[in-house]
Amino acid sequence: MRAHGAVILQYHHVSETLPAVTSVSSETFIKHMQYLKDHHFTVVPLNELISSLQSGKELTDKTVAITFDDGYKNNYEQAAPILEKFGYPYTIFVNPKLIDEGKSYVMTWQQLKALSKKGALISNHTQTHNYMHLKQQGETDAQWQARTKNDILAAQKRIKEEIGHDYKYVAYPYGEFNNSLQALVKSIGFVGIGQHSGAVGIHSDFTRLPRFPASGFYSKLDTLSTKLASQAFTIKALNYSDSVTNENPPSLSIQFDMQDFHKSQFACYVSGIGQADLNWTSKDTVQIISPAKLKSGRSRFNCTAPSIEKKGSYYWFSQPWVITP
């Protein structure tokens, strides 16, 4: 069977004592991993998944990569032993400057080295987890570009020095990015990875790869199982002003390859508002508009359509927004 995409899962904490919104308990995490095993998912290293897609190689059906953001100590203490038991590879996105400063809540380089020797990939989450798209007071575009580029490359250098890894992937802190940041990431040869939902495929934009958050509210297996079976839309063109915008309500248009879903079954939902308004401007292009203004801060449009070819599987696309005053 031709696979339309793969899924990248995103975790933060595996802990019973830390904020539930970004945590799963060890018990729940084990249930997630057991589900992958019982349903015959192929769990691959992130670099294998990305390199396959970049080369245009369709992945086998039910391919998954597992990732963690921030490099918390509970990843070492609780998540790693569970993953080792299942034999699953995984990636940890870290902030090197916070490690160098000896912050108590993150793993040490020694711990990360130990995990890397067992197969974990260690990758770039910037130096200190700042909002990458924000300019400092009085900063010009050129100064922002130079500072942000230096931040990414300095973090990459430390990871290479300590671990030996040089995978040019950067997970955007808070999942936030704008057009300028995407262009910068592309210009230095990096893959940009967000926190918005959706499957990934050979037609994905590699400056904004989606991941399905699997912690907190999103850890429930009845909904996570649907996401694990999702597929990536083939998008020919995606047009919107910017992901970080004061346009409110925002809108976007998408041109699709329509071969495997019916236009009548395509639907989009706006976080906190409900169903989006759809305007099909041609046989394969839709304009998506929120019926009401979004709250300031992070929001999403989530769009799905059931596959014709693969019964029970949904195409899934998410557009993240950061609404500014």
Automatic annotation (TrEMBL):
Compartmental location:
Secreted
Q: Which UniProt keywords apply?
A: Signal
* UniProt xrefs under Pfam families: Polysacc_deac_1 (PF01522)
User: Where would I find the NodB homology domain in this sequence?
Assistant: 62-325
- In Swiss-Prot or TrEMBL terms, this protein is called Polysaccharide deacetylase
Q: Which organism is it from?
A: Pseudoalteromonas lipolytica
